[in-house]
Amino acid sequence: MFESLSSRFEGVLKRIRGKGRLGPEDVEEFLGELRLALLEADVHLSVVHTFQDRIRERAVGVEVSGALNPGQQVVKIVLEELTEVLGGETHRLTYASKPPTVVLLAGLQGSGKTTTAAKLARWFKAQGRNPMLIGADLQRPAAVEQLRTLAARIDVPVFSEATDPVSVARAGLADARSLGRDVVICDTAGRLAIDDDLMAEVAEVAAVLDPDHTLLVIDAMIGQDAVNTAEAFHARLSLDAVVLTKLDGDARGGAALSVKEVVGRPIAFASTGEALEDFDLFHPDRLASRILGMGDVETLIEKAEESFEQAEAEAAAARLMDGTFTLDDFLEQLKALRKMGPLSNIMGMVPGMAQQMKGVDAEVDERRIDRIEGIIHSMTPGERAAPDVIDGSRRARIAAGSGTQPNEINQLVRQFREMRKMMKQMGGKGRRSGGGASGGKGRGKGRKGGGGRTTAPGPAPIDKKKSLSLPGLGETPGGVPGGLGLPGEGSPGRP
After folding, report:
1. Which residues contact 182 (CB under 8 A, 6 or more apart)?
2. Under CATH, which number does the domain 101-289 receive?
3. Which of 10, 20, 147, 338 is the most buried (most CB within 10 A)?
4. CATH fold of 300-433, please?
5. Beta carbons within 10 angstroms of residue 352's beta carbon
6. What is the value of pTM for the model shown?
7. Which one-letter DSSP state was computed for residue 4?
């Protein structure tokens, strides 16, 4: 969503880095370019003015301070002010002193309320809570059935009945209390546009539930209209926070950059995909960092810790260093990596990766990863353990079974062999280095000053001329394998 804005910001900030001193004319030129970038991203005009004023006040006449030159300090200022525009700190929900904690979801039809209700229930379950859903959207056909279907995936009960929304809300809350549920999430009806009937119905449901948190679900794809919608609902319901859906879309991102400043309510959660797990707390500082091309290492680590089993990752790393890492191990690493989400999203979290990907014809195609998985699945267990035994006849059979070409089998086997050999050499050198320093037998014998290092300090040398890209993934500028990385690159638990 923020690709265009990020690209514009990157160009603007690149020109200002390295300047020894910034005068008023430099700052005004810089702010003019920022203004244009924000307006093109469909950011609310009042937000653009506020953003400019804050940066102007802090940036004019800035001089060298510590390790940063003035241009770098302005980049730091932009990062801080962009974080503030997005909400400043992460908004965290509190729980009622007397359960259940009641969450009311409101919004227009098509914003994704029903799916968001299920995603939010899943999120609460991950926090150790016992949520229950109330289906009070009796206007849209099959809305309650959709809610039940989604809730069944996460084993969360749903209460609804064919009466009216207010009665459903009242009875649902009573049912949750009797069952000992500590969180209640109520899905309400929407309309295609804001009208008196919609507002009256939601207000009546809110009066019955007396919610601890009233969240407005907004489609991030509608741009500045999201701000108008939020203002209208806030005037009637007194919102506590906003949930932004479809942040994985191709809209310009103006909604995310405008809601907090205009409405005065933070963004609590963000939905970044269709799956129920594509939902989490909204972190303003992390999004600001990604918009400015600085990556998002914290989220990357969190996703890796969720996807990679620590014991399995450590065992795989040990096999990699011993040279016994197999294609089965590689396949498991691929599966864990894909659990973290779309590869294009993961790459955006890696600092500097956005710049590395400049000039690449297309984003990493998930289907190319499917082809690699298909090749490995078409091999026998013995071939996955020792791919060098694959002969010409088997290459043809594997290619036919995976829908690929024999040369792709050759390339995978060759690259895997080189990678395994290189990692074994690195592991062996590391052990020899560590053993000499640990005081083993013969330490210092016949040597002036002792010491047992057998290799030079630092990492083992790697031949950067050798490409270690995998078949179908190509290679990005700078020698970075096409958005995937190699198995065991860094610590498996900490990419």
Report:
1. 95, 99, 100, 101, 129, 130, 131
2. 3.40.50.300
3. 147
4. 434 Repressor (Amino-terminal Domain) (1.10.260)
5. 12
6. 0.61
7. H
